[in-house]
Amino acid sequence: MDVQKIPAREGNHNLKNYEKMREQFSWEDMKKNFSWNETGKVNMAYEAIDRHAENPEKKDKTALLYSSPDREEKLTFSDLSKQSNQFANVLKKYDVKKGDRVFLFMPRSPEFYAAFFGILKTGAIAGPLFEAFMEQAVRDRLQDSEATVLITTPDLLYRVPQEDLPSLEKIILVGENNESGEQYIDYHEEMKSASEDFAIEWLDLEDGMLLHYTSGSTGKPKGVYHVHNAMIQHYATGEWVLDLEEDDVYWCTADPGWVTGTSYGIFAPWLHGVTNVVRGGRFTPDDWYGTIEKFKVTVWYTAPTALRKLVSAGEEAVKRHDLSSLRHIMSVGEPLNPEVVTWGLKAFDLRIHDTWWMTETGAQLIVNIPSMEIRPGSMGKPIPGVEASIVDNEGNELPPNQMGNLAIKEGWPAMMRAVWKRPEKFESYFINGWYVSGDSAYKDEDGYFWFQGRLDDVINTSGERVGPFEVESKLIEHPAVAEAGVIGKPHPERGEIIKAFITLNDGYEESDDLLEEIRQFVKTGLSAHAAPREMEIRDSIPKTRSGKIMRRLLKSWELGLPTGDTSTLEE
Ligand code: 6R9
What is its EC number (predicted)? Predict the structure, then answer.
């Protein structure tokens, strides 16, 4: 197959000589950027917020540009510093101490960010939850973490099963409420009387900062535990990958209930002191473009599911807006279909940079950066300071072009430090000095990594291994197809056959001829063995709230099997 190559971006960028940097770089060098390099005592809230608030030239700069359909607000670094101090004082009054778990279950709002940093300032561990979680998902996470304080809104309270949560002592309510009872605390009431000064809790680099629950394909969600040390990598990738500059207006579309929404929706931009756009509510293509236009966004980090919607909306939608402020686009969360990259080049005259990482890895690991040639469909190469490879099940490295487990040499700064209360689960990620991701991929001769699928998703048909991503990418190249989810279905002779679920673009009608045409399109464009033997048109493809296609669920539905944990399924 011919590989398309998109040359490096012209002009200035923060990491100019990737190869040289990879040879020379050590994480020790990066520490010199931080004030704690001398004292050894840290707090993310200080580095991301207070440090800028103490700087006379920076304190009145807009840190947060918040916008939702019914509210718009700007907070400076100084505002955020004071409000998070106030909130830290509220927590302290109710006895929150270093190491306690304090959870947030609410939509993105200015209060969310003040509370989030207030938690970190007390030395407690923050646990952000998606606002759309239902009772079971909330129960699992609050029980497992034994959270003592929850910050939520009155209208989400009915999904908090308090009788099942013996550890939960206080509930802080943001917004008008009529709750009475000793456990309820009114956010705005308490903030009014709280002091704007707070003595931040100085911590060790290895002290806990964040618990992110991620759903496994089976069993209960696991609490991925991150420490303040992660900031070294958030800062480094903010420079190299996000390519942040002082005057940037940065927008990450991810919700902080998902790791992208914290590592890159909170930490990386604010460690660099840039203006950060937060947009609540649901988006349509015109909302996305409208937000970029209105706030003159320069750097945009989003996900393939969003980008695919933009492709479906077509170039006419692009032309309705002035997007001239945009200079850098990145994607994460799912494989980025080559078609989307090619379209982006045409529609925006910009490259879309794919980035690969996981909740467990805490920060970006394999990336495309501005100074690097992009090969559409490839996740790029490991960042300086990180060694990646493809290994077999015993942790032995495989030669180029061979599909296997995508693995990372242990010891990068943002790596999870534990799976909460499950040491055996944590240990199971590591083989022979490698962190094994559970993703299947291969590396080409030039060191580019190519994603194939989650290992559980790889299809074995008539002895050939087929990554569902490849088939999905070919399917959406067909003008009729908007989205596609591909699974392997057990078959007596072939082992598995490929079944594709697709949604159609506006203007296309379901017919046998159309399905056959699409099948032929994959057969001639990809290969005969990769052409789906079965196809089904659906109104939508099931996705997680962070936009990932849930192939596992498609498969369970298809085979009539139990669906397992569906707490992250988008309605
Ligand atoms: C950051 C995040 C992790 C899983 C990961 C992989 C998939 C993420 C990807 C990608 C292909 C990329 N994934 N980035 N697949 N190309 N650039 O998404 O964390 O929610 O834990 O998901 O997402 O399968 O293993 P998380």
Answer: 6.2.1.1
